[in-house]
Design goal:
Number of strands: 22
Structural class: alpha+beta
Shape: globular
CATH architecture of the largest domain: 2-Layer Sandwich
Distance between the termini: 33 Å
């Protein structure tokens, strides 16, 4: 296993932004992952686990410790159970499952990144979440240096959340995820964009739904395509906020009844962050220095060319401040920040 020094991190992210890692290594197996963790521990180095870099914004100063890139491969199938190595490309796994006729993740096609990141963020889109299909998560405990397995019920899945990015953030390195899919299951067509896309014909196949999701994502600049400037992003930059029904009622009274919303649990309401940005004046193609908003998707903050992390943070802060002033809602960024606290 090689440990490299001063490796630029920008090429490992979809944003194309970030300084160098003091140390960098790539793990193709659990043994190599453990070796890298021991390397960092013996030298007192901070450790960061890097997957596909699709949900990451790296500081301009880089990272002073060891960045461990997870590159493990392998898909094992046992009936409707798929055990997938953390380094596998997520969209490639979706394609694999759909081609075999398995439903459950077809609406998650086109999402960049690796399998290991899906349980961490509870990745979801177009009416599906991975929490619906995850059975078990295998991980390396960075405290005990032993491998542990979590049943789905132990992962504390919620909207864009899990045990791994909340109460146990930074403790576990995901090495494998097991998904239970449905053979010859029907595709999920609950999301408005998908219903509209498949109005005619009304009964698409799993493969057609996956292809349709990718087409919709591409229209919105949310599909990684070489040469597409709108793709230099980390996807949706802000989470859709969930507020109390009482707060929502106050907003309706103050701003009118045309505030889009979706029901959430425990008498709460979910609002589309894209609508909030638009109402606060941050529309598509908005620019602030070398950072901006996608011309096709309001929630995607993009690198307009040679942008720095500081440029993106300036735009982030401007949006958060204005939305909070107008709606008393504090938007929460989705991407992981790698660098000093900001």
């Amino acid at each position: 296993m090689k440990f490299l020094e001063h490796v630029p991190l920008a090429p490992y992210t979809t944003f194309g932004i970030g300084g160098p890692a003091r140390w960098f290594a790539e793990a193709s197996s659990e043994d190599e992952a453990l070796e890298a963790v021991v390397f960092a521990r013996e030298r007192g180095l901070p450790l960061f686990i890097l997957g596909g870099g699709s949900n990451l914004l790296v500081s301009d100063d880089g990272f002073p410790g060891l960045v461990l890139h997870i590159a493990s491969k392998g898909i094992e199938q046992d009936g409707d159970l798929f055990r997938v190595a953390a380094g596998e490309n997520w969209d490639a796994f979706v394609t694999h499952a759909v081609e075999l006729g398995y439903a459950g993740i077809e609406c998650l096609a086109g999402i960049p990144g690796t399998v290991g990141g899906t349980p961490v963020q509870n990745v979801g889109a177009y009416g599906q979440e991975v929490a619906e299909t995850i059975v078990r998560v295998r991980a390396l405990d960075l405290e005990s240096l032993g491998f542990v397995e979590f049943e789905a019920a132990d992962c504390a899945f919620a909207y864009r959340r899990s045990l791994f990015n909340s109460t146990a953030r930074g403790r576990y390195l995901v090495t494998r995820v097991a998904y239970r899919l449905t053979h010859q299951g029907q595709p999920r067509l609950e999301y408005a964009d998908l219903k509209k896309y498949f109005a005619n014909p009304p009964h698409p196949s799993l493969a057609e739904v996956a292809a349709g999701v990718r087409a919709i994502r591409r229209e919105k600049g949310m599909l990684l395509v070489d040469g597409d400037a709108d793709c230099r992003s980390a996807g949706s930059f802000f989470k859709n906020p969930i507020i109390s029904a009482e707060h929502y009622a106050r907003l309706v009274a103050a701003h009118g009844s045309a505030i889009p919303s979706y029901p959430a649990s425990d008498e709460q309401v979910k609002l589309p962050a894209a609508w909030l940005l638009d109402q606060a004046g941050f529309k598509k193609s908005y620019k602030l220095g070398r950072a901006g908003i996608s011309s096709r998707h309001t929630l995607a903050l993009i690198n307009l060319g040679n942008a720095t992390a500081s440029d993106v943070l300036a735009l982030r802060d401007a949006i958060i401040t204005e939305v909070e002033a107008k709606f008393a809602i504090h938007l929460e960024p989705e991407p992981v920040w790698l660098g000093p606290s900001v």
